[in-house]
Amino acid sequence: MRNISRLAALLVAGAIVSLPALADKGKAFATVNGQAISNSVYEAFSSEQKAQGAPDSPELQAAIREELIRREILAQEAKKKGFDKNPNIQGQIELARQAVLIRALLSEHVRANPISDAQLRAEYDAIKASLGNTEYKARHVLVESEEQAKAIIDKLAKGEKFADLAKQSKDPGSRDNGGDLGWSSPSAYVKPFADALGQLKKGDYTKAPVKTDFGYHVIQLEDTRALTPPPFDQLKPQLQQRASQQQVEKLVKELRAKAKVN
């Protein structure tokens, strides 16, 4: 699966939520100290509450009215104290304004470019193919130098236990657990590691250090089992989310390429 930028992931999380249809200002929903609270503000806030599961009811409407009045009172007091003139506050207001506009843009973009089941199925099949048919349960010791790795291999040949030698590993995630990496498909590892793992027989360990960008590994294969991936329908929501993220990432890249930035 290709890497998706954190920005795209965050943006699409807001984009796939339906935005409220804002009403025309029209008549003020309420007035506080002569300042009107528009119907569009009420509709936006009400839609957010309903999207979060709040049932529409007279109680909800009354609660929203009171909340908006309280907010307006507090906002007016903040302006009296000059907070709206503070450069840092102005920056935060601008960021909030941008976030609303971006959410509207991306929501419309996602709606205008629906992702078909065929696209999701193709992604599912590609992931399934990359995982292979077998899972491996492995241990490893990761050290800085080839000499250190060779020394560990020599100790294994003399009968020392792999779990004990794993205490020398610089991998904090497995060091205190005997080097145990759990069950994973080869695609979960970098290529040199995966290639070496695939050549081992159960119970065997690498007789030469395996070099990766992380250092030098000594790898032991404990067991293998058939890999049965979850069915398509179970993964479909995650595939949909990822496809939407890719959609947003593509849009951002296209717009960035066209933008004039000084």
How far apart the termini lie comes to 34 Å
**How would you sum up the global shape?**
elongated
Q: Order of SSEs, N→C? A: HEEHHHHEHHEHEEH
Helix content: 40-55%
> Radius of gyration, rounded?
28 Å
Number of domains: 2
- Classification by helices and strands: alpha+beta
User: How are the strands ordered across the major sheet?
Assistant: 4-3-6-5
Oligomeric state, counting identical vs distinct chains: single chain
Strand tally? 6
Most strands sheet: 4 strands, antiparallel
Q: Can you tell me the residue ranges where pLDDT is under 50 for at least 5 consecutive residues?
A: 14-25
> Which percent range describes the beta-strand content?
5-15%
Structure in a nutshell:
The protein is α+β, with helices and mostly antiparallel strands and 262 residues long.
What does the model show?
This protein has 2 domains: 6-112, no CATH class; 134-226, Roll (Chitinase A, domain 3), CATH 3.10.50. Helices cover 53% and strands 15% of the residues. It has 9 helices and 6 strands, in the order αββααααβααβαββα. It has helices spanning 6-15, 39-51, 58-80, 87-112, 117-131, 146-157, 162-165, 191-198, 232-258; strands at 28-32, 35-38, 134-143, 180-184, 210-212, 215-226. The strands form 2 sheets. Strands 4-3-6-5 form a 4-stranded antiparallel β-sheet. A two-stranded antiparallel sheet has the order 1-2. Helix 1 crosses helix 4 (87-112). It is elongated and about 85 Å long.
